[in-house]
Amino acid sequence: MDQIVYHDRYRNEDCVEKVYGDSFLRWTYGTVGGKIALAAMVKRAWFSHWYGWRMDRAVSREKILPFIQQYELDADEFLRPPDQFASFNEFFFRKLKPQARPIDPRPAAAVFPADGRHLCVPDLSRCDGLFVKGEMFDLATLVDDAELAQRYAGGSLLLSRLCPVDYHRFHFPVAGSPGPSRLINGPLYSVNPIALCQNIHILATNKRTLTQLETESFGRVLLMEIGATCVGGICQTYSTDQPIDKGDEKGYFRFGGSSTITIFEPGRIQFDDDLVEQSSQHRELYAKIGDSLGTIPKS
Predict the structure, then answer these.
(1) Which one from 48, 115, 168, 259 is the annotated catalytic residue?
(2) Which of 68, 149, 204, 273 could form a disulfide with 142 if both were Cys (CB 3.0 to 4.6 A apart)?
(3) Which of 113-127, 190-204, 259-273 has the weakest average pLDDT?
(4) Which of 103, 122, 110 is nearest to 216 (CA)?
(5) 8: which strand partners?
C-alpha cells in the first residue's frame, strides 16, 4: 500500500492520510527484519506499556506543540489550552468543548462513536471484505461468543479507525442502558491499513473490550474497543447504574492508534449513503463523533 486514501465527508473529496510513524510502520510490516521485530517485541503488551510510560513523563510535553502544528489540529476545540497538559498522553486523551462536536438530535439517527475513518458492512452475511476484497475477519472470534456471533451473523457493522492525530475519546452512538465492559485479551498489532491489508484478522484477535447496549429503537447494540500497538490502555468512563444519552462519553484510549466496532442486529440500521458508497469501494469515510452514521430503516 503506497498511500492511505480516505474520503472526507465535509470536503467531499479524497484525501491522503498523514501517517504518524509511517516509516516505522512500513519497516515493521513490510520487511523481514521488521516482521521479526514485530513477533518478538512490537506486538507484546510490555512494548506498548513502555511507550505509554514514555508518553506519561513530563518531558514528553515538548512533543505537544510540534504535533499540533504538523498535523494541523484546531486547538480552539480543546477544553484546556495546550500549555496546561502535564504530558503528551494527557494531551492525547484530551477533552473537547461540547460545542465542538454537536450531536445529531434526530431520534431516528445513530451517530459516529468517534472521530476517525469509517467503513461499514450493511449485511455481515454478504460481506466481501473490508480494506481488501475477499478479506474479512471471523465474527465468532471477534466477539468471543458463539451465541452472540449467531445472533449478529446477518447484522450490520461499523468499523471506526482512530489515528494518533484524532480526538481519542469514544462515545455512545445511540441512547440506551449499557451493561458492563468485558475484556477479551490478545496481542497489540497496529490497526493501520498498512497492517490490516496484510492481516485483517488483527481486528478480531487484538486486545479488545465488548459492551452490550440495550436500546428502545435499535435493539441490542454491541460496542467494541480494539487496542493496538502503543495503546497504553482502553479506559471506560461510563456507569452501568443509569441509562445514557446518545453522544455521551463511553471512555478513552491512552496513547496510540486504535479502533471501535459497532454492531447492530439485522434490519436495525440503514447506513448513510456516503458511508455505504465509500465502503463499497473499500475506502474509509472521514467523519466526526456526533454526526449521523445512519437511521432506523423506514418500514
Answers:
(1) 115
(2) 204
(3) 190-204
(4) 110
(5) 13, 286
Residue type, 193: P
Question: Among 181, 258, 259, 279, which one carries the catalytic annotation?
Answer: 258
User: φ and ψ at 208, to 5 degrees?
Assistant: -155, 165
- Phi, psi of 262, deg, nearest 5: -120, 130
User: In angstroms, rounded to a whole number, what is the distance separating the alpha carbons of residues 285 and 97?
Assistant: 24
Of the candidates 169, 83, 159, the one whose C-alpha atom is nearest the C-alpha of residue 127 is 159
CA angle 149, 151, 153 (to 5 degrees): 60
The CA-based angle 63-95-66, given to 5 degrees, is 15
> Is-catalytic flag, 171?
yes
Pick the catalytic residue from 166, 171, 181, 279: 171
Give the closest residue to 148 by CA, choosing from 212, 68, 54, 71: 212
pTM: 0.87
Residues sharing a CB contact under 8 Å with residue 51, sequence separation 6 or more, in sequence order: 230, 232, 255, 256
- 125: annotated active-site residue: no
Residue 203: HSE in the Cβ half-sphere, 13 Å Cα cutoff: 26
Q: Residue 238: which of 225, 219, 255, 226 has the closest Cα?
A: 225
Q: What are phi and psi of 74, to 5 degrees?
A: -95, 100
**AA letter at 199:** N
Q: Can 181 be counted among the known catalytic residues? A: no
Please state the separation of Cα 179 from the chain's center in Å: 20
